[in-house]
Amino acid sequence: MTMTELEAGLNLDDEAFASKFGFQKPTPNDTIVTHCWKGGRAVKACNAFEEKGFKNVKCYSGSFRGLGEKRRKSSS
């Protein structure tokens, strides 16, 4: 989901969130792990969750691109 969708979605009530995204809205005590391709949006998403009172937010800032590079190097 895009940052715009995330920020708007966090402002929706539970029923509207589930209707829009097709899954239950997380609660402030759920563990949330954000990620993206390069890492920058993951940090922004983490901040958006924390600003809305989520307590267990983790940011995978290493990115999927970085993970792929690590895997290629380790299999060489």
UniProtKB/TrEMBL annotation:
SUPFAM superfamilies: Rhodanese/Cell cycle control phosphatase. Residues 12-76 form the Rhodanese domain. It comes from Armadillidium nasatum. The lineage of its organism: Eukaryota, Metazoa, Ecdysozoa, Arthropoda, Crustacea. Keywords: Transferase. Pfam families: Rhodanese. This is Putative thiosulfate sulfurtransferase, mitochondrial. One of its GO terms (cellular component) is mitochondrion. Gene3D superfamilies: Rhodanese-like domain. The keyword Magnesium does not apply. The keyword Ubl conjugation does not apply. GO terms for molecular function: thiosulfate-cyanide sulfurtransferase activity.
